[in-house]
Amino acid sequence: MNTKFIRHIYQICIALIILSTSCTSEFEEMNSNTFKVEEVSTGPLFGPVQKNIFQELHWKYQIQENLNGDLYSGYMAPPTPFNSDHFNSTYSLMDNWNATPYDYRMTGVMKPVHSILKLTGERSKDFIAIAKILRVAAMHQVTDTYGPLPYSSYGMYETYSPYDSQEEIYTSFFKDLEEADQYLKEYIENNPGKSAFKKYDYIFGGDYTKWRKYCNSLRLRLAMRISNKDFIKAKEEAEKAVSNGVLTDPKDIVGMLDVNNDNPLYIISNVWHDAKLGANMESILVGLKDPRLEKFFLPTDNIKAIELGPNYTLSTGEEVRFQGIRNGIRLVKKKDRINYSTLGAPWQVDQQKGTPIYLMFPAEMYFLRAEGALKGFNMNGSAEDLYRQGIEASMSQWEVTSDKSEGYLEDATSHPSDYVDPVNQEYNIKAASHVTIKWDSSLSKEEKLEKIITQKWIANFPIGQEAWSEFRRTGYPKLQDLKTNDSYSFETGQVDSEIMIRRLPFPTSEVKNNNSEMLKACKLLSTGKNNAGTRLWWDTGVNRFE
């Protein structure tokens, strides 16, 4: 029998065993033709790839995303004193938690995409395009968590994986997205209305036009990510993305939906009660009287909190209290804060299976373009107009009425509120910012940027990883200081309380299995040190406008 054929089939089988999430029927479909390897479908590999951008299994999602990006972004905080009250919230970084954003995506995305690209023929450029888009969608989150990664040479060597610098990785991202965009453009032109990918698509149902917009939306996101470091490249890529077409319709939400499984945030927040409203989210949305707050979270029924008095008026006119948890405090007992504000209706039992794991919102594109316009890029609109459109798109997405949206846009006085903890007054803290909503042309570019990023932060909820990345890149929104910083108790912590956490250390799996390359990668970091206080390549600490 043809040994090349056997090797190819073996690679597919191994990938499926590793992923373990593909169903038996998909496996049988992949191997239905036992005579021509070029006709073996790589389609069944795409399901696991999409599901591993963010793990849909609740406990994996909790460690991969909720106790990292969701926490560090200021969106959410747990009432639970994990690990005897020494965990990520106080920068007591736990190595097995640190590894999950890396390991799940390396195993669940990079491996199968490597097989897809190796096995997919030139006549299936649409599959190649989507594989590359998904790889960038997953791996930009990994590099923005750790820094250098094995990317361009992934899978080339059996015993080790060389790291690329983050600058090299971003160059590869833009190359991948350029190629994907061209492949999809050609396919759409030559095969109008057709989609071979439809039955494998958990995100867009086989709509290649939306896949192309998502491709360019990722390109715009990544272009702005490097704009403080490589201004010229950022401008070039951002303008290409906008010219090619990005997401604009509030209905075109990018999310992975599998109605056969529970939404992980429902389980984490409303079953386990391990995720509540973050104090930063409370401060900003309560202070700004933001109508999206009652969509994102539910009012508290904590008696001590209610005794402090209402801090928000619902759309029904009822006065209630939303109560969050501050990062970096000693939690001591879960019962103290277990009934602070929990996630809202989309993550409650009756709606949660219809709520996707969100990857991107069209509103984000308006804010990225607003920032680009502020920097002098051609974004097909002014910074003010795009800023307003971003807020309107987010309000529309969350079904906020137009009159409330318009009133919000014209609010020039509301600003973030101080935080009060009903359990321990020692944890009270003044608002970190006094940013307001209404656009003011007389403000400096830095002040305008704070408005743009603060509103993007609100609009991106609950995509915590992206919010954390943008906070590190821009310094906005301004977040509350940690009360307790345990990072200096171990070598890979060491986080300045004012600068806050900048990355996660490389996981133990790399230290053990790829040590020599990992040590080389440390030298690619800005300080040469594998600790959580080290800034990434694009994290300059200064916002650049020209």
Share of residues in helices: 40-55%
**Lateral arrangement of strands in the main beta sheet:** 1-3
Based on secondary structure, the structural category is mainly alpha
Largest sheet: 2 strands, antiparallel
Q: Rg to the nearest angstrom?
A: 23 Å
N-to-C series of helices and strands:
HHHHHEHHHHHHEHEHHHEEEHHHHHHH
Low-confidence region ranges: 1-40
Number of strands: 6
Please indicate the percent range of residues in DSSP E strands (runs of 2 or more).
Answer: under 5%
- General form: globular
Multimeric state? single chain
Structure annotation, total helices:
22
Average pLDDT confidence is: 91
| Distance linking N and C termini | 62 Å
What topology emerges from the helices and strands here?
Blueprint: H1 3-19, H2 24-30, H3 46-53, H4 58-66, H5 69-72, E1 76-77, H6 82-85, H7 95-119, H8 125-146, H9 166-190, H10 208-225, H11 231-244, E2 254-256, H12 264-271, E3 276-277, H13 279-287, H14 293-296, H15 303-307, E4 312-313, E5 319-320, E6 357-360, H16 362-374, H17 383-397, H18 402-409, H19 445-459, H20 464-474, H21 508-513, H22 515-522
Antiparallel strand pairs: 1-3, 2-6, 4-5
Helix pairs in contact: 1-7, 3-7, 3-8, 4-7, 4-12, 7-8, 8-9, 8-10, 9-10, 10-11, 10-16, 16-17, 16-19, 17-18, 17-19, 19-20
